[in-house]
Amino acid sequence: MLGSRYAMWIGWGPELTFFYNDAYGPTLGTKYPWALGKPSQEVWKEIWNDIGPRIEEVLTTGHATYDQDLPLILHRSGYPEETFHTFSYSPLPDDEGGIGGQLCVVIEDTERFIGERRLRVLHEIGARIPNRQTIASLCSAVGECLAGNRRNMPFTLIYLVESDGEHAVLACSTGIDANHRAAPAVLQLDAGGWPIRQAREESKAVIVEDLAARFGDLPTGGWDIPPHRAMVVPIAEQAQNQPAGVVIIGLNPYRPLDSAYRGFIDLLAGQIAAGLADVRAYEREKRRAEALAEIDRAKTAFFSNASHEFRTPLTLMLSPLEDLLLRSTRTGMVSVDREQIELVRRNGLRLLKLVNTLLDFSRLEAGRLQVKPFSSRELLARVRTNIDLAGERRRVARILQDSEQRLRSIFAEANVGIAQLDLSGRYVLVNRKYCEIVGRSMQELLGMRLIELTYSDDVGRFNELLDRMFEAGRPFTIEVRKVRPDGSIIWIANSVSLLDGPDGRPQYVVLIVQDINDRRVAEDNLRRLNETLEQRVAAEIQERMQAEEAFRQAQKMEIIGQLTGGVAHDFNNLLQVIMGNLDALRRRVSRSDFPAGQELLRLADAAARGGQRAATLTQRLLAFARKQPLRPEPLDVNRLASGMSELLRTTVGDNIEIEMLLAANLWRVSADHNQLESAILNLAVNARDAMPDGGKITIETANRYLDGEYSAQNDELLPGQYVMITVTDIGIGMSKEVIERAFDPFFTTKEIGQGTGLGLSQVYGFVKQSGGHVKIYSEEQQGTTVRLYLPRLIVAETGEGDCPPPHRIVARDWQ
Length: 815
Known about the structure:
Blueprint lengths: L6 E6 L4 E4 L4 H4 L11 H4 L4 H14 L3 E11 L4 E14 L5 E10 L1 H19 L6 H13 L8 E6 L5 E8 L11 E3 L7 H7 L3 E3 L2 H5 L14 E6 L9 E6 L8 H73 L3 H31 L10 H38 L3 E6 L4 E4 L1 H7 L3 H4 L10 H17 L3 E8 L5 E12 L5 E10 L1 H15 L1 H59 L5 H28 L7 E4 L1 H7 L1 H8 L3 E7 L6 E4 H17 L5 E12 L1 H5 L7 E10 L6 H6 L17 H11 L3 E6 L5 E8 L15 E4 L5
Parallel strand pairs: 18-20
Antiparallel strand pairs: 1-2, 1-5, 3-4, 4-5, 6-7, 6-11, 7-8, 9-10, 10-11, 12-13, 12-16, 14-15, 15-16, 17-19, 18-24, 20-21, 21-23, 22-23
Helix pairs in contact: 4-5, 4-8, 8-9, 8-10, 15-16, 16-22, 19-22
């Protein structure tokens, strides 16, 4: 645990005493290193109501728990802090086989979770504010988005400054009552408790402390306490020296106001400013169009009135002129006078034609007449109007283009992947980060379908949520795997929503993605770690029990060896006295003519034979105790084993087959020749006795390297190079209990009188005294294998005694 890069802590014992590794230090914060050795409930008292029942379940049932992105309020940074953690509690066994404590492996997800929560807010606002035509509609859309995010922003206020520059009007509020003293409908810039004038003049955010002292009780938003700080952020206005207003945001009381939090609020204010600029541009265009329409209506009314006023007197004037000309023809009026009357009449008709044209134009503008040709002056007026309208449209287009360029820059350089797809699932727009995450260029992606990059096992899940979004219109988040061009698979988190077109219907699908591959790999490793924890703990306990058993067995053999050596030494001293006196008695009787001399000599010989048997037994005990005198010499084990073939065949009988598998280039050893022969013979006799109906004995040699792990499990065994001698039979085998006692002096499974129980003890003592190791492998009715390991003799190489090539010797073939 101490060396792991995963954050871990252990609660052990009745008080769940707290232990942790270095990787857990950042989670503890200011509690590091105070927490070490304290009761767990004292260390995490602020969240014990959340984690205590989980720990109790583990200690009671022995079942591990798992939580993902669990919200916890920690007191680790000098203030209560909102955090999110993915962790598992697992039981830890004690020495009695019960549950002595619990292990917690944890990954902190605070920054990722809160970052995704803020991104969802920005994405939702960005999707809902375009194409808004009024400030009321814009503020309504913004308010709906902010109202659902009261953990990020417990309350918000948007104030827009009036044209007098001295008052601000509340345009939008969320999370706070309209009649609250902190949210007046209209306030002076220098009054009302909010530093709106300062934020506008400095064009930067202002932090407001001690909200309770300024405004009394404030709403708590999504928390159990109200915010104690707020941020007043100016809302920039296009082509203006000062911001159009401010957005006031109550800050999360459980998060620090760090650069990430400030960046989120700045982006939010920027989106509101962009939406406001679009609305203001639309309103200016609308007012311009209405003004032009009013001018057209006034012009039409003027032309209509003027035409009617001119038409009446012209009609009254032309009618008498017509009568006068008709009468002049009858009366013979002077030609000069007649010409003057004709001139007046012609100009009157021209004037009447012009009046009728103006009247027709006024009716056309009013929509009461079909199009007819109009005068050049009217044409110029209409052309001038269209030029003015085109200029205004170009100015608005530039504003919109600047706004769009800002949004494109944010889109291109965003630190999250963003992609826009059509309703068929094909990419139409991607940013640099998205290309980096999926490992493809922008040219590759455009035109591809999303399903082509999605891991096949995740397609069904993704399509199901996509269908629900099309039906209900609600965005969703999902974690799926993507396949890169090189075949590697990565995990990404997707925030998916719809983007409406001008007609209000869904036109595009927008993805905001983050690379979460490292986190998912860590979670998978953690899950696998938790799943195998019990098995690994059980295996380690089993290993420890085996090591302890081996140590106890070694201790037992050492104690028995010391006792046996002491007893054998005393026996040997007494036998020396007895045998010496018997020899003296035999010599004396044989030289005298004592009448009962022959009888005494027979008895002395019998006593000497018994003493010799006792001496042999004593030597075996000394061998087990590793106190017998040895005469080690360089030995070629292959040559020794080959030389014993006839002796072994004779000893085991004709119904036993002997097979020798002797390794090539076998290393030499330093050992007592006679004792090694005796050891192999003892093992062969035991193998014969285990096969009363006949069978096969295999004697094998090999070079072996015993590593540190193997030597650690066997007391007094050093790692290094050894020569292995193996004797295997196919007999009745041994039980586990018999194997544990097989090397004990005088232990035997044979009938009384069939053996002393010192054969294996002598083998054990000889091998150990030679610096080696002996191991028995056996199962009942499955035969037995005994392996002797003798240390390799490192000497200068000579040609003498070179090992023979690999060969197989079958004693039965020699007959």
